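Lecture notes, part 5. Sequence design as translation. It can be helpful to think of inverse folding as translation between two languages: the language of shapes and the language of residues. The source text, in structure tokens, appears below.
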């Protein structure tokens, strides 16, 4: 059993990178967090219980030859499976029905839906029997998430796959939530090229970064934290902080970016990199295409996605950029490009989210 004090200090959204690691490395599912607070709500409560915590997709034909894929299309073989995930810290006899039917409601649109929790007392026979009955009746799978080693997370019950998705609910989520719209954009691109695409998806953290999350949670003691008489830099910026270009950014999270007084949303390091490269493309496309920036064993820019591990297409300029990079590598690349383009680094700021 996990320490109750630890669970109390843990925020449900801190579970997302652990589930993302498990889905990516174990199940081959690319995933994204859906922020309900970003949705356009016309009436209070109208869109309650339709937002999944995370969504994901997997391609069924990515390893097939082009001829077989073409043949499969003639027989309407589905090329993509869509997933929905509801995350909770724990599942008990007292909350099972509530959290389960929340997962049912939030996952009605997807091919497969899952309820995910860190703490599930699988030794409780009554709890397990009740979970199995609900899963069999409604098709929702259950995952027990292992925070110490996400790859050993347990699929308690598998979700029942539906052949068709609920188009009306998908369309509703698409219209009201930008995160879901970005997710579907990646799915559409992936289906077109028959290769996984994660331009807008959650960054897959390393095991070291996940351990830092656990350490930060374990170090919190709400009873010993005392208010200070003088606010620190985080408080004065409303839990934001301008990044110092000399620091190591591993484990830190960006929130937005300012480039010569123009502000851009950038809530992942990948988004920081893409945003900056788009700025450079608009500034001097020729120079960007001729950049000398390259890695020791691979290119960072190419006119073909086949030369890169995970390629993002700058559609306006028909140039691919490598986005399968660590947070620190992205910062190193941005600094190198700033120098190459003779930009003033003091006019380029990355704002960190100090809540993470």
């Amino acid at each position: 059993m996990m320490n109750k004090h630890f669970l109390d200090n843990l925020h449900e959204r801190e579970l997302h990178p652990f589930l993302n690691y498990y889905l990516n490395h174990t199940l081959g599912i690319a995933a994204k967090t859906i922020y309900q607070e970003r949705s356009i709500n016309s009436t209070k409560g109208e869109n309650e219980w339709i937002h999944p915590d995370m969504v994901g997709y997997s391609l069924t034909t990515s390893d097939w030859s082009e001829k077989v894929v073409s043949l499969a299309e003639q027989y309407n073989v589905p090329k993509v499976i869509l997933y929905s995930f509801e995350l909770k810290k724990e599942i008990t006899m007292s909350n099972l029905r509530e959290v389960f039917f929340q997962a049912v409601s939030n996952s009605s649109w997807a091919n497969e839906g899952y309820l995910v929790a860190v703490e599930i007392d699988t030794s409780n026979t009554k709890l397990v029997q009740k979970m199995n009955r609900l899963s069999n009746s409604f098709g929702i799978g259950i995952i027990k998430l292992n925070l110490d080693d996400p790859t050993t997370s347990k699929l308690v019950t598998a979700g029942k796959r539906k052949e068709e998705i609920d188009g009306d609910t998908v369309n509703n989520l698409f219209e009201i939530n930008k995160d879901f719209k970005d997710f579907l954009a990646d799915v559409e691109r992936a289906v077109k090229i028959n290769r996984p695409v994660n331009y807008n998806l959650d960054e897959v953290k390393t095991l070291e970064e996940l351990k830092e999350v656990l350490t930060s949670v374990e170090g919190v003691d709400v009873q010993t934290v005392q208010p200070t008489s003088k606010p620190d830099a985080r408080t004065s910026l409303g839990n934001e902080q301008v990044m110092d270009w000399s620091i190591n950014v591993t484990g830190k999270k960006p929130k937005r970016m300012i480039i010569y007084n123009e502000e851009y949303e950038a809530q992942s390091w990948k988004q920081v990199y893409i945003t900056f490269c788009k700025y450079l493309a608009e500034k001097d496309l020729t120079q960007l295409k001729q950049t000398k920036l390259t890695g020791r064993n691979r290119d960072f820019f190419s006119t073909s996605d086949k030369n890169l591990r995970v390629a993002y297409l700058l559609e306006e300029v028909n140039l691919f950029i490598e986005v399968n990079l660590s947070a620190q590598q992205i910062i190193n690349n941005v600094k190198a490009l700033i120098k190459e383009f003779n930009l003033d680094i003091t006019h380029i700021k990355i704002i960190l989210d100090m809540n993470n």
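The translated text above is only one of many valid answers, since several sequences can fold into similar shapes. The radius of gyration is 22 Å.
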